Amino acid sequence: MNSLTLPPELADQYAKVRQCIVNGNPRKIKTLAVVSATHGGGTTTVAAQLAISLASDPKLTVLLVDANLRKPDLHRRFYVAQENGLSDLLFGKRDFREVLKTVPIKNLLFITSGKSISDPSGFFEARDVEEKVIRPAVNFDHVIMDCPPINPYPEGTMLASRSDGAVLVVQAGETRREILLEARQQMTQARVNLLGVVLNRRKYYIPEFVYRKL
Fold first, then answer.
1. Which residues contact 176 (CB under 8 A, 6 or more apart)?
2. In which domain, by residue range, is 174 found?
């Protein structure tokens, strides 16, 4: 788990995001989709660290789901087997309890991506994510989903639209404005509740007074 250990200043930033999710919305954000506009935005890192930050509150139970069947990577971050995960659950080969995996973090459980499939977009369209994933997770306080990028694939937007909210991960210095506008347009059309943007891989910290002027 050393790869998921953060320096104090970054841990503080995730704690701020956690507080926004827990206390900063008029309605409770139970299911949260972590999305990006294109590949390489860093959703896997943000989803993992956000789930860990939420689980650090002893009053909260958290479920982390690897819903990126295009390039699943969360299982490597937590050193668990990819098999018997989300795709197996949606195929009906495993039930909800059978795909829950433990990690060395209290209050946090994990569903890996499961068996690889050839057409994730059609796969998600043909199966009821809400019935098989979201409803069975009723006993968790928060469900964090690492989703595929929105611009190239339709399932990222679909998963975000079925969540209580979404955060858009932007890679600092890399993601172009027109690409972000395209992602925002898709989310707006799908009526996604976009909670905010996480600027990932920023190489320096902007002073607080600069944020107030943005």
1. none
2. 2-18+31-202
Total domains present in the chain: 1
Strand stretches in 107-205, DSSP E: 108-111, 142-146, 165-171, 194-200
Both tokens of 179, joined, read 């690409």
Low-confidence spans in the chain with pLDDT less than 70: 1-9, 24, 26, 126, 173-174, 201-214
**What is the rounded end-to-end Cα distance, in angstroms, of the chain?**
36
214 in a structural domain: no
**Residue 164 forms part of a structural domain:** yes
Q: 207 in a domain, yes or no? A: no
Q: Is residue 26 part of a domain?
A: no
Q: What pTM was estimated for this model as a whole? A: 0.87
- The label of the residue with tokens 């459980």 reads 109
Supply the DSSP symbol for 214. Answer: -
pLDDT digits (tens, 9 = 90+) for 160-192: 999 999 999 988 766 788 888 999 999 999 999
